[in-house]
Specification:
135 residues; alpha+beta; SH3 type barrels; 2 domains; four-stranded antiparallel β-barrel; two-stranded antiparallel ribbon; 2 helices; 38% helix; 27% strand
């Protein structure tokens, strides 16, 4: 997606085109784009101040959404670890690290990476559990 920079002049002609930042672009990139927009605007037709305020408000929303995604990811990781802890002593089938299906009783759980160790020593990540049985 491209967005024309209002009132900008550049080597390509009267209106310079700025590409919208790719997903995952950080606030430094946004600030560089805003400074470039200010630097290259036409002094005879300056950009409306309200437009800058709208851009800053949109940037603030994007930044807060990014923080929300990070927090939600952390919560999801803890939920996986808690679910794994509840499986200790239960018989599970799942995909081991090498991709093979293994079955065994969960002996322990690593909270560092949400990986369960079965009684035979094989390891299964929580997200790779296929079935759970009572023992």
């Amino acid at each position: 997606m491209t967005t024309p920079v209002s009132g900008a002049t550049g080597a390509t002609g009267p209106a310079q085109v700025v590409r919208a930042p790719a997903e995952g672009a950080d606030k430094d990139m946004f600030m560089k784009m805003l400074v470039a927009q200010l630097k290259y605007q036409n002094p005879m037709a300056p950009t409306d101040g309200n437009q800058y305020m709208n851009q800053m408000a949109a940037f603030s929303q994007v930044e807060k959404l990014g923080q929300l995604v990070e927090a939600q990811t952390a919560v999801q990781q803890w939920q996986q670890r808690i679910a794994a802890e509840a499986l200790v002593g239960k018989r599970v089938s799942g995909l081991a690290e090498d991709g093979q299906t293994v079955t065994g009783t969960v002996a322990s759980v690593s909270f560092a990476d949400a990986v369960m160790t079965l009684d035979d020593g094989s390891k299964v990540a929580v997200e790779n559990v296929l079935t759970v049985e009572r023992t």
